[in-house]
Design goal:
Layout lengths: L1 H7 L27 E9 L2 E8 L2 E7 L33
Antiparallel strand pairs: 1-2, 2-3
Length: 96
């Protein structure tokens, strides 16, 4: 997994410069505004590593996980402050 490779090589995922990735899939609803986002892995229980992109500009970002619980007790799989809707409300995931 990417996060293990980054840690093994001594890279701090939060400090990486913009990077071009080829196999990413946006996890946000198709109606979202702003950059696309794909979850790459967990840094720890309070921090997730995401790649965000808009056109040809890619950046690694660390985000806190969304803590909104669904009625069935599952947590949202997206990052805190995402728009629009929570992962359990979206029927068309994943998309590019």
């Amino acid at each position: 997994m990417l996060i293990r490779h980054l840690k093994a090589t001594g890279e701090d995922p939060g400090e990486l410069p913009p990077h071009e990735l080829t196999d990413v899939v946006c996890e946000l609803d198709t109606t979202h505004d702003g950059p696309h986002a794909d979850h790459l892995g967990d840094v720890d229980r309070h921090t997730q590593l995401w790649v965000q992109w808009d056109g040809d500009h890619y950046a690694f970002v660390q985000r806190a996980p969304c803590e909104a619980p669904a009625e069935d007790g599952d947590a949202c799989t997206l990052f805190d402050g995402h728009e629009p809707g929570h992962s359990w409300e979206m029927r068309d995931l994943p998309h590019g």
